[in-house]
UniProtKB/TrEMBL annotation:
InterPro entries: Cycloisomerase_2 (IPR050282), Haem_d1_sf (IPR011048), Lactonase_7-beta_prop (IPR019405), WD40/YVTN_repeat-like_dom_sf (IPR015943)
A GO molecular-function descriptor: 6-phosphogluconolactonase activity
Record-linked PANTHER family: 6-PHOSPHOGLUCONOLACTONASE (PTHR30344:SF1), 6-PHOSPHOGLUCONOLACTONASE-RELATED (PTHR30344)
TM region positions: none
Signal sequence extent: none
Name this protein carries in UniProt: 6-phosphogluconolactonase
Pfam families named in the record: Lactonase (PF10282)
Length: 345
C-alpha cells in the first residue's frame, strides 16, 4: 500500500453488496486497485473518517434497527475493527459528519437530527435528538426530509439541510444538546440536499436536489446566519428527463466547485470568482456509470473518484488543478450498490 491512497466506500446492501468496501488509488499507475470488503454491515450508505485517521463512522442497519457504528482503522492494513454501535427502531440516517468526539446525523425518513458523543474512543452515546416538521410544494416534500447534518468551519454550529421543508437550519451545541439557532428558507420546491463551505469560511454552496441548482450564500460566523447572493443551474438547461442532484465538493484552494447529477449522470464543474466567490459554469463530465450518488477528491486532489450507484462501479478521473477539468482514466472497478466514497485524510 506504500504511496497509494486508501479509500472506503459505503453502499446499500439490498442485493449483492456486503457492506463497507476498501480500495486503493495508485496515483502513479492511475488505477483503482485492491477492492475488498472491509466490514460486513447492513446498508452503510454514508461513512466518515476521523481527522486523525484512527476511526471510521458509518450509517448502519440491522433488520428494523438503524443508526451509527464506530470502527477502529488498523493503520497497517486499513482493516476495520468494530468498536460500538447505536441502533434504534426505524429507518437509519442518510448522512453523518464528525468533529472531535461528536457525530451528527441527518435522517431523511424520520426528519430527524441526532447528536452522538464518542466517549473515551470506545462508546457511542446518543446525546440529543431533534425532530423537524413541515412540508413543501413538491410531491417529495410531504414531510421533513433531513438530508445533511454537518459542522460549520468555525465549529460553532451544526448546519442541517432539510430537503422536505426547503430549510437550512443552524444549531448551537449547549451542554451536549442541540439548540435551534437560525432558520433560512430557500426557494420553494428546490429541496436542499448538501452544503460545502469555501476555505475562507465566509461563503457556502448549497446544492438543491429537486431543482438541481447551487445557491451561493454569504455565511456570518458571528451570528450563524446565511444570506443568498447567487443561484446557478447545475444540470443542462435542455435536459428534461428526471435529474436528482447528488453531491457537492470544493477544492481545498477554493477555486473550483463540483456537483453530481443523477439522471444526466455527470459531474458539473464551476469556477469560483476570486473576488466574489460566485460561480461560473465550465463543463459537464460523464461519470462512466449510472446514478452518481457521490464522488471524492483524492488527498493530492489530482484525481476524482465517482461512485455510480445503479451501475455499481467506481470510476477514476484525472483532475487538472489549474483548470479544474476532469479526464477519465482507464480505471473502473466494481463496488455493488455504491453510495459514498471517502479517503483517509
Amino acid at each position: 500500500m506504500k504511496n497509494n491512497f486508501l479509500g472506503y466506500a459505503g453502499t446499500y446492501t439490498r442485493n449483492t453488496s456486503k457492506g463497507i468496501y476498501r480500495f486503493e488509488l495508485d496515483p502513479k499507475a492511475k488505477k483503482i486497485t485492491a477492492v475488498e470488503v472491509a466490514a460486513e454491515v447492513g446498508s452503510p450508505t454514508y461513512v466518515a473518517v476521523s481527522e486523525d485517521n484512527r476511526y471510521l463512522f458509518s450509517i448502519g442497519q440491522d433488520g428494523d434497527l438503524g443508526g451509527v457504528q464506530a470502527y477502529q482503522i488498523k493503520q497497517e492494513t486499513g482493516e476495520l475493527i468494530k468498536i460500538d454501535e447505536q441502533l434504534t427502531e426505524g429507518k437509519s440516517p442518510c448522512h453523518l459528519s464528525i468533529y472531535d468526539n461528536q457525530i451528527v446525523t441527518g435522517n431523511y425518513h424520520r426528519g430527524e437530527v441526532v447528536l452522538y458523543a464518542f466517549e473515551d474512543n470506545k462508546a457511542l452515546v446518543t446525546a440529543s435528538a431533534i425532530q423537524h416538521n413541515g412540508d413543501g410544494p413538491h410531491e417529495r416534500q410531504e414531510k421533513s426530509h433531513v438530508h445533511f447534518a454537518g459542522f460549520t468551519p468555525d465549529h460553532n454550529y451544526v448546519v442541517v439541510c432539510d430537503l422536505g421543508t426547503d430549510e437550512l437550519v443552524t444549531y448551537r451545541i449547549e451542554d451536549n444538546k442541540l439548540v435551534r439557532h437560525q432558520t433560512r428558507t430557500v426557494k420553494p420546491g428546490s429541496g436542499p440536499r448538501h452544503i460545502v463551505f469555501h476555505p475562507n469560511g465566509k461563503t457556502a454552496y448549497l446544492l438543491t436536489e429537486l431543482s438541481s441548482e447551487v445557491i451561493v450564500l454569504d455565511y456570518d460566523a458571528q451570528t450563524g446566519t446565511f444570506s443568498e447572493k447567487q443561484t446557478v443551474l447545475a444540470k443542462p438547461a435542455d435536459f428534461t428527463e428526471t435529474n436528482d442532484a447528488s453531491a457537492i465538493h470544493i477544492s481545498s484552494d477554493g477555486k473550483f466547485v463540483y456537483t453530481g447529477n443523477r439522471g444526466h449522470n455527470s459531474i458539473a464543474l464551476f469556477e469560483v470568482d476570486a473576488e466574489t466567490d460566485e460561480l461560473t459554469f465550465i463543463e459537464f463530465t460523464a461519470t462512466g456509470g449510472e446514478w452518481p450518488r457521490d464522488f471524492v477528491l483524492d488527498p493530492s486532489e489530482s484525481f476524482i473518484v465517482a461512485s455510480n450507484q445503479h451501475s455499481g462501479n467506481l470510476v477514476l478521473f484525472a483532475r487538472d488543478q489549474k483548470t479544474g477539468k476532469l479526464t477519465p482514466m482507464d480505471s473502473t472497478v466494481e463496488v455493488p450498490e455504491v453510495v459514498c466514497v471517502k479517503f483517509l485524510n
